[in-house]
Amino acid sequence: MYPFTFTKPATTREALDAGRRGGRYIAGGTTLVDLMRETVERPEALVDIAALPLDEITVTARGALRIGALARMADTAAHPQVRTRYPVISQALELSASAQLRNMATIGGNIMQRTRCTYFRDVTAACNKRRPGTGCAALEGINRSHAILGTSDACVATHPSDVAVAFAALEATVHLLGPDGERSVPLADFLLQPGSTPDREHDLRPGELITAVEIPPHPRPLKSGYLKVRDRQSYEFALTSAAVALHLRAGAIREAKVAAGGVGTVPWKLPAVERHLIGERPSDALWTAAAALAADGARPLAHNRFKVELLKRTVERQLRIVGGTA
Ligand code: SF4
Fold this sequence. Notes:
With 326 residues, this protein is α+β, with helices and mostly antiparallel strands. Among the domains are: 1-51, Uridine Diphospho-n-acetylenolpyruvylglucosamine Reductase, domain 2; 223-323, Enolase-like, domain 1 (2-Layer Sandwich), CATH 3.30.390. It has 13 helices and twelve strands. The protein has helices at 12-20, 32-37, 73-78, 80-85, 87-94, 99-104, 107-112, 137-140, 163-169, 187-190, 271-277, 284-291, 306-323, and strands at residues 5-7, 24-26, 45-48, 57-59, 65-68, 173-178, 181-186, 209-215, 223-229, 240-249, 252-261, 268-269. The strands form three sheets. The chain has a five-stranded antiparallel β-sheet. Strands 9-10-11-12 form a four-stranded antiparallel β-sheet, sandwiched between helices. Strands 1-3-2 form a three-stranded parallel β-sheet, with helices on one face. Strand 4 (57-59) and strand 5 (65-68) form a beta hairpin. The chain starts with a strand and ends with a helix. Bound molecules: iron/sulfur cluster (SF4). Iron/sulfur cluster binds at residues 115, 117, 119-120, 127-129, 136-138, 155-157, 198.
């Protein structure tokens, strides 16, 4: 470890002041402390925001579900409003990490967590995300777990979050508070694909805090769920995953929300799959045809070609489960 300062502001205003002076926010600490130990990250000033009043989970007057950024993963998964309205969120959280980590880690930290690319965490390896301009060891290295969608010549790392995939499917918005006031950004715009600047992972301005993630109102009740495929059934990141939410009325699909994880540099929304489902009646043939569109645009690497077929099968299986024909 190396020397750094640690402050624990009593109010959100004090935290923002510390953030404006260059302090790095920390809450559950389940990612950042690891990265500091490995010297992948070397913040000089930590600002502990865990005690700020940003952990509430509420339903707003217009029917949106608002999850405070400091709500713990375990508490969010167990919350009655989350469980009954959006099982896809509860399931994504419960399939993440370990019980101990879910008791500490927060929703804001979860969507901000950094990639599990092994070369990113090995300070001796070339990595454009960790040190811009040094190259990408994963391109010619072991890239079995890496992304097939949204990649660039500079970086092919996956976004590791499960719950962010559920949020992407449900078209969540990220609420932010910074020195210049409040703003809101769709999650789809908040998390950035690598392009030529993989070190820039999100649209967070200097000193800004995530205050909440909001799921917009869905007036038509959604049936939803999350499927995660991984090398072992516990404490492992996704090879592929699928978040699916459907509204069926009079035997037809009226609304479809689908996103995939483990395959994209960001949580990967699947609009072509969604469009294929709308207005159709559930059937095995429909799930297969829709899921066949899931890997459109994929650019597999030497060791992860299997993800193209696995992604289609994951989406198909989860459509069948949520659509009620399983
Ligand atoms: Fe770094 Fe991205 Fe390449 Fe991994 S895939 S080594 S994070 S540049």
